[in-house]
Amino acid sequence: MSTPTIGLAPIDILTDQPVAPRRRYGLYSAATVKDTGPLRHAYATWSTDTCADGGYWALCNPEDPTAEDDNGVKNLDRPAWQTAFPFAIYAGIGCDRIGFDDAAARAKSRLGAAEERLVERALWQGRANIRPALNTTDATLLAKTPVSLTAAVALLEEALGESTIEAGLIHAPRRMAAPAASLELAKLDGPRQRTSLGATWVFGSGYTPSDTGPDAGPAADEGVAWLYGSGQAVVRRSPVQVEPGQHPATPGYFDPASNQAYALAERTVLITLDCPLFAVPVTDDTPQPAPLPAPTGLAASALTETSARIDWDPVAGADSYLVDITRTP
What is the chain's pLDDT, residue by residue, as a tens digit (329 residues)? Predict the structure, then answer.
């Protein structure tokens, strides 16, 4: 009598996914982030003094008593009101493991990983009538044709300074971080990167797929990006709400036929972005290294049918050399 053979199926080993560090130098690094109560039915309106202007008055001028003023009248600005509306961000998951608690934790984890990118994308694009938004007609265009990154930063800092912003924000696609650092336009200052005049860079990962000009214009061409300058930003966030997701074939979050559990994590966000708002198209002017000269002092010695000694003077900055050897008949 033979002994039956019992086969064991492979066992799946479940482990925790790697924990990645949060992206740095994006909107959440530059803005003030506040956790609040529910925001779904809220909106913000405020009167800002950031962009207010003043005047000057001639106290004593015998030749012209009204010199340096506007027809002898002191002009007073009315308050500039701004409004912001909330929007929701969400992430969900369907799990093969039984139990809503696990699906809920995974949905919340996914929202945490994607949150900053989603908020940046909403701020840049202004989807679903989200306000404020960067690429709107409210932005003042500082250049009609693309300029160098250095010139763009100069234009934005000058415009922000003339609008009485001491140090605003410069929003840029994330791919512009390396050129800015190479040109010494971005310097580390604690958890932020700043320009020489103190403006804070916002290298948004959510800005990259929506790299468009004011009023949702066409996407930037290859080698061209859009930069925006704005006032300071405050991001208000509601608590994260985790709810059972809706399975397409069953009335609840759990499908017993497939052991699938569905969960949805959602929170409401309200961004207040202070005035002003400027836009400028830029080209990537990352300096390219100059080609190194060919070595001098080339000399060959100890020639044989199969070998030779070749010497040359070293070239500063060279990491390696390419030697081309040809045999003359």
Answer: 555 555 555 555 455 566 666 778 999 999 999 998 887 767 778 777 777 777 766 666 656 655 555 566 777 777 777 788 888 999 887 766 544 457 778 888 889 999 999 999 989 887 656 778 888 778 889 998 889 999 999 999 999 988 866 689 999 999 899 999 989 999 999 899 999 999 999 999 888 766 677 765 555 666 688 899 999 999 999 999 887 655 554 445 666 666 677 788 899 999 988 888 999 998 865 555 677 888 888 888 887 777 788 888 888 878 788 877 776 65
**DSSP bridge pairs for 81:** 47
CA atoms within 13 A on the CB side of 13: 1
Q: What is the DSSP letter of 160?
A: H
The helix (H) or strand (E) run that includes residue 171 is strand 169-173
> Which of these, 40, 235, 209, 215, lies nearest to 133 by C-alpha position?
215
- Which one, of 264, 237, 266, 271, lies nearest residue 37 by Cα? 237
CA 324 to CA 28: how far, in whole Å? Answer: 53
How far apart are the C-alpha atoms of 243 and 110, rounded to whole Å? 14
Give the Cβ contact number of residue 273 at 10 Å: 22
The alpha helices in the chain, defined as continuous H runs, are 27-30, 100-125, 149-162, 177-182
Q: Distance (Å, rounded) from C-alpha 72 to C-alpha 91?
A: 60
Query: Could you give the CA distance from residue 203 to residue 29 in angstroms, rounded to a whole number?
Result: 10
Distance between CA atoms of 282 and 170, rounded to whole angstroms?
13
CB contact at 8 A, 314 and 295? yes
pTM of the model: 0.74
Cα 180 from chain centre = 13
Enclosing H/E stretch for 91:
strand 87-95
Alpha-carbon gap, residue 93 to 104, rounded angstroms: 8
Token pair listed for 320: 């390696």
DSSP letter (8 states) at residue 170? E
